[in-house]
Specification:
The chain is α+β, with helices and mostly antiparallel strands. The chain is built from three helices and five strands, in the order H-E-E-E-H-E-E-H. A three-stranded mixed sheet has the order 3-4-5.
Length: about 140
């Protein structure tokens, strides 16, 4: 892999860790990838540390999601493996998170509260501010 591709991948890993820290989702998230290591190297750190998953982050024009997930799984141990795939040039929100269905089902079963659907009423336009506020939840 060329130096430019390595830098692009490292930049995506840093942005992803920062996004998770800033949102409060994973306050300890940090980029851990340290250069290139052999794929099966048991000492290879995860791309993103400080999260309860083995994360493999990819930022490319074309991504093999299965290969990215298998790479995360190889060294996951007991941690659930996920691949975060970002197509170069897309918005960060358009990234795809990939994991095995069986793993997702195990995580869903362990969730403390059941998944709920929240209906949002029409946004309220306060006359005093002249802009839309967040929706009101039922």
């Amino acid at each position: 892999m060329g130096k430019r591709s390595q830098n692009k991948g490292a930049s995506f890993e840093r942005r992803l860790a920062k996004r998770w820290r800033d949102s409060g989702l994973f306050p300890d998230a940090v980029r851990r990838g340290e250069g290139q290591a052999k794929r099966n190297d048991p000492n290879k750190p995860p791309d993103i540390g400080g999260v309860p998953y083995r994360v493999e982050a990819k930022d490319r024009k074309a991504i093999g999601m299965r290969a990215a997930l298998e790479q995360a799984e190889e060294l996951a141990g007991d941690a659930p493996a996920i691949a975060v795939c970002h197509y170069f040039g897309d918005k960060m929100d358009d990234s795809i998170v990939c994991m095995r269905l069986g793993e997702w089902e195990r995580l869903a079963e362990k969730a403390e509260s059941p998944m709920v659907t929240v209906r949002v009423k029409e946004p309220v336009l306060p006359e005093s501010r002249g802009r839309l506020d967040a929706g009101v939840f039922e």
